[in-house]
Amino acid sequence: MVGSGQITVLLAKLYAEQVMSQTGNIPATVPGLMLGYLNELNRDITLDRLPDRVVHQAAKLVAWQCLYPTYQPHLAQRSALIQSLLAVGIDDADAVLEYLEHRLYAIQPIGTSQQQFRFCLDPLAEYLAALYLVDIYGTDGSQWHSFLKTAATLPPAASGFLLALSDCYVTEFMPQATDIVPQELNRLAALQPVATS
Hints:
Blueprint: H1 6-21, H2 30-43, H3 52-65, E1 76-77, H4 78-87, H5 93-103, E2 107-110, E3 116-119, H6 122-137, H7 141-151, H8 159-173, H9 180-188
Antiparallel strand pairs: 1-3, 2-3
């Protein structure tokens, strides 16, 4: 979860790995760091490598399926993941899911039937799912206000996702001080509102 000390260690590790492996282009934000982590995993693939853009799209969608509707990391059914990938135009959904599992090791099957998946890292799942929601809602204020009503009913265990969503929202939209969405997300995640200048 984002709210625990585990995220700090993960971020330090991801940042150090990206500093050592890249020249320039070090992500300045946590959402950028998460996408950069996927890029690093994908960069190591030499044979039949999927483009980063496809990896990002698929990973965000799979992460969303692994968090929705509880907004906490949980298991997602293989069939639901395949359907979701097909619905957004990823034709070879089975192969893309296999790529995330066997090539990038970003997701793992659970159980003997191997029909359920979860992300290997909860903070990665939370941030990617948050990026998915930012992509879907964009600047549509009515969708954000509707989501805030839903978020107000979530249990404390969803605070990791809410914090990640606030971070992704701020990174994507650079909101004005009057924008209540990040303030409300932070409040709902039991954090003090971020001071803006």
